[in-house]
Design goal:
Elements: H1 5-10, E1 16-18, H2 27-35, E2 39-43, H3 50-61, E3 68-74, H4 83-92, E4 97-102, H5 106-114, E5 118-123, H6 126-134, E6 139-143, H7 158-168, E7 173-176, H8 182-190, E8 196-198, H9 200-203, H10 212-220, E9 226-229, E10 237-240, H11 243-253, H12 258-261, H13 267-276, H14 299-318
Parallel strand pairs: 1-2, 1-8, 2-3, 3-4, 4-5, 5-6, 6-7, 7-8
Antiparallel strand pairs: 9-10
Helix pairs in contact: 2-3, 2-14, 3-4, 8-14
């Protein structure tokens, strides 16, 4: 067991988190991670209604009685989801841990705090992490440039971002982006983090609810097989490299605007990839860390071997500092 401020804060055994992922963070996966001693997270907006979210949490609780979190990603939208209703559903479901992401979580803090909910805010820069601490979040997940999805616009990788966050924050924080095994956990701990968040690694697990073809593609792919789309729109996203994402990059680099790629990046197309396994059907998110993923184990095995390997690596490295007998 690796005990940190983060595990103590949330009452979990291991500092390994399965972050919220659209279309991926469902009951089976979250429950498997939590049952193994990590923190599994159900993605609120994957559920079509707040009532469905409550049912999904109830379904997860038939598989584990250990802590489970819910991700609530808050983004500006022409037709925004009913965030207040999802927030109420989180409370009604008895959830005690929420991962917020996207916009400033401050408007949601009063209600979460009033119901004893711990808030972990995911952000991509030290300045946003400091702001999150100031508005009262309990912990931060700091997301490096290596990550899947939205890495922000600063392009700061974890090797610099993690110790910079450690210098600036007083609350616990975990590192996200580029983590797949115990070597990464050991490195994150050495750099000052209190644990790791792994997305792509848990996508490629037995319990992950996405198509087997997508999982097999992650195993086959290397760290070179991603694209950064929306760079010219200052809304960078890291996605799998396929014919669709490459076309999006080409159109935008040639001066195209968002309407020129709207149909290519439609969320329904990405969901089709995950559900039906046609990896060329649309845009789907994956991180650089796919280059370190070579199998499709159970989520529980991922948690256990990550912690075991981290301990072994740290013990081996520490042995280098032992005095040599003369």
């Amino acid at each position: 067991m690796v005990r940190t401020r983060f595990t103590d804060l949330l009452g979990i055994e291991h500092p390994v988190v399965q972050g919220g992922m659209m279309w991926v963070g469902r009951a089976e996966l979250a429950a498997a991670v939590s049952e193994a001693g990590g923190l599994g997270i159900i993605t609120a907006l994957t559920q079509p209604t707040p009532a469905d979210l409550v049912k999904e949490v109830e379904r997860a609780r038939t598989m584990t009685d250990k802590p489970i979190g819910v991700n609530l990603t808050i983004l500006p939208s022409i037709n925004p989801p009913p965030y207040d209703e999802y927030r109420r559903a989180i409370v009604d479901a008895g959830i005690t841990i929420v991962e917020t992401a996207g916009s400033n979580p401050e408007p949601h803090m009063e209600m979460f705090k009033a119901h004893g909910i711990r808030v972990v805010h995911k952000c991509t820069s030290v300045r946003h992490a400091v702001k999150a601490e100031a508005v009262g979040v309990d912990a931060v997940s700091i997301d490096g440039f290596e990550c899947a999805g939205h890495p922000g616009e600063d392009d700061i990788p974890g090797l610099v971002l993690i110790p910079a966050a450690a210098d600036a924050l007083s609350i616990p924080f975990i590192a996200s982006g580029g983590f797949a095994d115990g070597r990464g956990l050991a490195a994150a701990l050495a750099l000052g983090a209190d644990g790791v968040n792994m997305g792509t690694r848990f996508m490629c697990s037995v319990e992950s609810p996405i198509s087997q073809q997508v999982k097999e593609r992650i195993v086959e792919a290397t760290e070179h097989d991603t694209e950064l789309i929306f760079r010219t729109l200052s809304n960078t996203a890291r996605v799998a490299s396929n014919s669709v994402s490459r076309e999006v990059v080409e159109i935008l680099n040639a001066g195209g605007d968002f309407p020129a790629v709207r149909e290519l990046v439609a969320g329904a197309r990405g969901r089709h990839v995950f559900e039906h396994g046609d990896i060329e059907a649309g845009i789907w998110t994956v991180g650089l860390v796919q280059g370190l993923i070579h199998d499709i184990p159970t989520a529980g095995d991922i948690v256990r071997r990550t912690v075991d390997q981290a301990e072994a690596v740290l013990r081996e490295r520490l042995a280098l500092f032992e005095p040599v007998a003369v």
